[in-house]
Amino acid sequence: MLTKCCISITLLLYDEQICERKRKNRLFLPLFTFSQFDKIQKGEPHMMSNYRVLLFYKYIPISDAQSFAAEHLAYCRELGVKGRILVVDEGINGTLSGTFEQTERYMQDLRSNPLFTDIVFKIDDVQEHAFRKIFVRYRPELVTLRYAKKLDPNRDGGGRLKPEQFYEMLQREDVVVLDGRTGYEYDLGHFRGAVRPEVDSFREFPEWLAEHFAAYKDKPVLTYCTGGIRCEMLTAVMRDNGFREVYQLDGGIVTYGKDPSVQGRGFEGSCYVFDERISVPINHTEERTIVGKCHHCGEPTERYINCADDTCHHQHLVCDDCLESKHGYCSSACEAHDQELSLAR
Predict the structure, then answer these.
(1) Among 43, 107, 223, 315, which residue carries the largest CB count within 10 Å?
(2) CB-CB contact of 255 with 233 (8 Å)
């Protein structure tokens, strides 16, 4: 049975003209409407789930991480799962999709490794693979920060709050809530009253904190991100820069949305995810709202698309009407530029 936390994203080929010009451009549209979510929550019949998405990470030293990555890629290919997994000297970070049997086998096999016996998996039911290929790569960092000082999240990170504890602290007037993701992720959904960071990548956070957030060093600060891994490092950076009381949402937004006690309460909009689904619902209460606004007209929407101009591909929110009238472009300049390129070919 498809759970209420499930959302699938389907590829939208809007019209023949766009399809002909932009076969490689992907326009994403949520498969379920609010009324369909209501049916799922009430237990009414719907499509069966055949696949699952796993989200996981762990900071732990891995000896000969490069060899581990190569062996893990061969294992994943043989198993048939798809997704993206980063392996570094300091741990593992991954998200993948597969059938129920494949994902069960993956979790069992990874936990059989003494390094990962206690690794936590966040699980979503989906209708099909959320990825097209499998990538397992060795990288210098689990989350790209390029910070001048080496930090250990297990030692240097902020306090961890379970969903109920996080929700309770959200009610305090003296608390400042900081979104630990990028601005475009915030625009699709965020906790009520959270500060929007003006960053396009995680490595911009140290400079942004110094220039725009230093005034809150003596305030209790709550941070959150998709699955928790970015806040592990973000809170370590904040503490290293003099923030006195810093907390992180343990397990991230995804875990918060699955918690039976809070049910995602206080989160507005949907959560951006880095796979074919693009977004997943978090707030499963009567408070659920849409906060995303169309890039062109400002109307409420949760559809993210890439600009149809191959030289742009700017990801932006777009409503139904503007998707049709703007032909998938983020600006008239991009449409004109793309038409010029088409004529020149």
Answers:
(1) 223
(2) no
